[in-house]
Design brief:
single chain; alpha+beta; Annexin V, domain 1; Immunoglobulin-like; 2 domains; 8-stranded antiparallel β-sheet; 4-stranded antiparallel β-sheet; 8 helices; 24% helix; binds zinc ion; GTPase activation; GTPase activator activity; phospholipid binding
Length: 365
C-alpha cells in the first residue's frame, strides 16, 4: 500500500516497500521511514502524555514559532486539518474559508480530539506543510508579511489553500475542491501518471519512462566452474529482458555497461539474475535479486523536471530484512538527472554482490 501525504512534503512511505522521500527544503527534515514509524508508535503508546502537551511540544519546534502564512512570531492558532500554526490575523482568514478547508483551533483554549492531534503531528509542522502548499509561488506573487493588510493576507491564503495555486502543477487536483487534501492524497499518483504518460505502441500499457541500468561491477561472485566463473547479468522487467556481456574467468568482474528498459505504468519489481556462461551445458545461476523501483520513480515524479533543482537527495530505498540491499540506497538529483546507486547482495547463493546505478529518464512531453 502506498500512501501519499502532501502535507508531509512529498514524504511517501509504504509498509510493503519501506522507502521514503526526503523533504526538499532542508536536510534537517530528512525524516525516514523508521523515524515516522517510531513516531507513529510513540503517538499511539504515549497515552500518559496529555494531548495538549503534545500540541504544545509541536508548537515549540523552531519552524512553528512563526505563522505559516505571514511569518508573524508566536502563533497561537492551528489549522488542525491542514497541519499549520498561524497567527490571529491569518486565523481569521482561515475561518472564512470554512472548516471543510481549514479547521481552526486554539492551541491553548480549545479541546483537541486525539485524531486532530495525531493529524497535526503527522504533518510535522509549518515547514513541512509549506514545502507542499508553497512549493511553487510564481514570480509576481509574494507572501504577505506580518504587517500585510487583510486583503493581501486573504488573497494569499485563499490562493494557497482554497485554490492550491502554489502546489507543483503536477500535484494539483482540479476536481472536487471541497476536500482538497483528501483529493491530493488519493489522486497524487494518478495525476503524476496521467500527466506524463504516453501509449505504448503495442498497447500493453502506458509507458511512463525509461530506466537506464548501469551494471558497474560484481564482487566475490560464486564459483561455478573449476576455479572461477564467466559471469553475466540478466535483468527482467515485465516482459522485457536485457543482459550484459560475459566476463571471462572473473569472480570480481567489471562491466560498466549500460542497459535500457522501458517502464510501464504498472511496473513491478526489476529482477536480476547472474549466470555463469557455460559453452557445453546450461548456464549455472549465481544468484538473483529483486529491485524495488518505486522509490526512484516516485521521487522522480514528485520532483518533476530534475534540471530545475540543484544536486540533492530526494528519496531513499531503505535496507530491510526482506530486500537485497547491503545499505540504504539514496535517490539523488545529480547534474539534472535522477540517479540511484546501490549495492545488492545476491540472494539464494553462497556469495556475491553487485554494484548498480539506476537512472530515471521520463517520457518527453
Ligand atoms: Zn499570520
Amino acid at each position: 500500500m502506498v500512501s501519499f501525504s502532501p502535507a508531509r512534503t512529498g514524504f511517501v512511505f509504504t509498509s510493503a516497500h519501506s522507502f521514503c522521500l526526503v523533504l526538499r527544503d532542508t536536510q534537517s527534515f530528512a525524516f525516514f521511514y523508521e523515524l515516522q514509524f517510531e513516531r507513529l508508535l510513540a503517538s499511539k503508546v504515549a497515552m500518559s502524555v496529555s494531548g495538549k502537551r503534545r500540541v504544545k511540544d509541536l508548537l515549540l519546534q523552531k519552524d512553528n514559532r512563526f505563522c505559516a502564512d505571514c511569518n508573524a512570531p508566536d502563533p497561537k492558532w492551528a489549522s488542525a486539518n491542514i497541519g499549520v500554526f498561524v497567527c490571529l490575523k491569518c486565523c481569521g482568514v482561515h475561518r472564512s474559508l470554512g472548516s471543510h478547508i481549514s479547521k481552526i483551533l486554539s492551541v491553548t483554549l480549545d479541546e483537541w480530539s486525539n485524531e486532530e492531534i495525531d493529524a497535526m503531528i503527522e504533518v510535522g509542522g509549518n515547514s513541512s506543510a509549506n514545502s507542499i502548499y508553497e512549493a511553487f509561488i510564481p514570480p509576481g506573487c509574494t507572501k504577505p508579511g506580518p504587517d500585510a493588510s487583510h486583503e493581501q493576507r486573504a488573497k494569499f491564503i485563499r490562493l494557497k489553500y482554497e485554490q492550491q495555486e502554489f502546489l507543483k502543477p503536477s500535484l494539483r487536483i482540479m476536481s472536487d475542491k471541497t476536500n482538497p487534501r483528501a483529493n491530493i492524497n488519493k489522486g497524487l499518483m494518478d495525476n503524476f501518471l496521467s500527466s506524463s504518460c504516453s501509449q505504448n505502441q503495442d498497447g500493453k500499457g502506458r509507458s511512463i519512462g525509461k530506466l537506464k541500468v548501469k551494471v558497474i561491477k560484481g564482487t566475490d561472485l560464486a564459483i561455478r566452474d573449476m576455479m572461477t566463473s564467466d559471469p553475466y547479468v540478466i535483468f527482467t522487467l515485465g516482459q522485457q529482458t536485457v543482459q550484459t556481456t560475459v566476463v571471462k574467468s572473473n569472480l570480481n568482474p567489471v562491466w560498466n555497461e549500460e542497459l535500457m528498459l522501458s517502464v510501464n505504468q504498472k511496473f513491478g519489481l526489476l529482477n536480476l539474475k547472474v549466470f555463469d556462461y557455460d559453452l557445453f551445458s546450461c548456464d549455472d545461476i549465481m544468484g538473483e535479486a529483486d529491485i524495488d523501483l518505486q522509490p526512484l520513480i516516485t521521487s522522480a515524479m514528485t520532483y518533476g523536471d530534475p534540471s530545475m533543482f540543484e544536486n540533492m537527495q530526494i528519496g531513499k530505498w531503505l535496507k530491510s530484512h526482506d530486500n537485497a540491499l547491503i545499505d540504504d540506497s539514496p535517490v539523488n538529483i545529480v547534474d539534472g538527472k535522477v540517479q540511484q546507486e546501490m549495492t545488492i547482495k545476491l540472494q539464494n547463493v553462497e556469495s556475491g554482490e553487485l554494484d548498480l546505478a539506476l537512472e530515471w529518464i521520463p517520457i518527453e512531453s
